[in-house]
Amino acid sequence: MWDGIGDFLAMGGYALYVWGAFGMVALGLLLEGILVARRRRQVRARLQRQSRRPAAARNQGE
Amino acid sequence: MTGRSIPWLKFTAPANFYTLAQRLVPWLWPAAALCAVAGLYMGFFVAPPDHQQGDAYRILFIHVPTAWMGMLLYLLLAAYGAIFLVWRIKMADIMARAIAPTGALMTFLSLWTGALWGAPTWGTFWVWDARLTSTLILLFLFLGYMALHAASDDREKGGRAASLLAIIGAVNVPIIYFSVEWWYNLHQGVSVMRSDGPSMADSMLAALLLMIAAFWIYAGAIVLRRAQAEALSREARTEWAQAAAAGRLTREQRERAAVGIEGNRPPLESGGQT
Amino acid sequence: MTLEAERLACRRGELHLFEGVGFALAAGELLFVRGRNGSGKTTLLRTLCGLSEPARGQVRWLGQDIRRLDERAQRQMLYLGHQDAVKDELTPLENLQVHQGLRGERSTLDERLDALEQAGLGGCEEIPARYLSQGQRRRTALARLLISPAALWVLDEPLTALDRRAVAWLFGRIAEHLRRGGLVVTTSHQSIDGLPEPRILELD
Amino acid sequence: MVRPLWTLLQRDISLIVTRRQDVLTVVAFFVIVITLFPLAIGPEPEKLRTIAPGAVWVAAALASLISLDRLFADDWRDGTLEQLALAPQPLALTALAKVLAHWLSLGLPLVILSPALGYALGLQGIELAVLAGSLLLGTPVLSLLGAVGAAMTLGVRGGGALMALLILPLYVPVLILGAGAVNEAMFAAPYQAHLSLLGALLAVALPLLPLAIAGALRITLD
Questions:
Q1: Fewer CB atoms < 10 Å away: N or C end of chain B?
Q2: What's the pTM?
Q3: By residue range, what is the domain housing residue B91?
Q4: Domain match, C12 and C72 both
Q5: Residues C81-94: pLDDT tens digits?
Q6: Hey, are the CB atoms on C14 and B155 less than 8 Å from each other?
């Protein structure tokens, strides 16, 4: 269907629009994934710190 | 009232929910990826170009799923909000809160892709089209929910106020949609974007359905992950949460935690009237 | 005529304040809630009058769940919180009148003037509350007790900003209310010598 | 049941009216916002006429929003709100009475003033009547919606701006229908449909939104 990779990337002249749309979606999902993974790591790290020092954790709140 | 007699109530206990999500999510990621790869292959290499729009129409394969997800997630958000308000199930608030950012992202992406699709086909990035306008308002509703939840110092109270807002918003969404549609028709007469476009080739439809499936599964996975983090953080001082954070949550700990949740409910005579 | 609390547990935000609080207060009894700062006295009193929802347990007044009282039972209860609910723009007399109007209670002008007089506000009935001192505002609020038909009084720190004479007056009022078969729930950091023998609820 | 509400209505109106500047501020805000449109767009009568319905309606929506910001704030701060919640009559009715008092003292002046401002922007005859009529039906809905937001944002960080974010999207249908009615009148088209839809919105909002307001207040007081 496509004549080589260049033709595919050109998207029949609509490259900017098509790749702009797909690119933003990819970026958005990627960013969301990274943020959620980071938050999960932070929460787990905090909890592990707390379980190591249970007395301090009780006063720390949250 | 044990978890066994009403199985779905079992997952209102954060510990049980956490374990369920922990088992589910590792399957959801590859499933979403598989659907996405298949859908993209169909969309780019099998589906033919449109005879009017050329290859620009391929934006549809991400525009439609994101737009759907935005609306669907808002309805889900309001449903969880209602559950939280009526039965005070903490997990419902956690889920609603976890849904909101993904919903806002999906709504934003549908606006973005819509604009980039509109540019080559209508000659402009933005028109005050009924659908675009009401999607924009949907984005504001998501942002309002998140802002209200974040602004309150008391998580429980903030959650209840935000849930109420989500419900009012959900009642308003159809009113907003119809009023905007009506407004648009009065002003423009003829719509630039008809929903009954050229009939879709089978390969296009297949690609679209695959992409929709991919977005559904992705949204499920990311929402569950966010809800897990939120549940851990709220239950930080409990035994199960600390065990879960260390990656060794046992069945006994989970059941103990779930019993604690049962005990947290008001006694039946008052709980029945809510 | 009883106020019952059953296995009450309350929390504020993520903080668990107390649990397992229970009592039954009968006509003519005084309940004094004691506890250090932050032990949940105010939260308990707000829960007892139905403003806050307990995390667990139930409060019943006249046999009804406090969160769904009917009109008659609601009228039988009077709550006085940290804030006086006294409007700056209105005079003590107007404040009293509005407060009664909101509760659907009736009284004559003479009765209202008399209540303000007794509360030690003789001479300032017609001065906007913004010119009154903190203690005088408190007295304006307390004047409600004199003309309200409510049987249950829930008073949160009623002695704040009151001078010694006003405290003695209030204690006398409470004693008289109890003699007539009323119920009082109260809390204070100050000495309560002079009050009738209270039942004491200790929050730690 | 009626007497407490009557007392509240009287008290609220007299409180607002004795604090005269509240009414003046809101009315002045309304007029100033409308004045900004000719200054920004230019004095051509045709242009101004085109935007007149929208300009008046946007100004009315913003004025309603800023005036509602403090609807419950004073009562909440001095403890009156607790007393209202503990009064014998349902909190929803109390909330309705408060919104009504607010609308009578701060919403109605805008409705009364609107024909003059519409005239200044080039509307004429029946259009002015339709403008006032649409505001008469629409601003109570705005007040009710705004009251929900005011109740939700009591004691929350960033109250005013947050309330605008929460409530303005919900104003959209009223705005569309209200300005739409005047637009129809300008093209000598039937405007009754718009007005009756506005009336329908009011009829739905009147019994339902007070419940939402009461719910939000209970959450705040809890």
A1: N
A2: 0.88
A3: 38-48+55-191+199-225
A4: yes
A5: 888 889 988 899 99
A6: yes
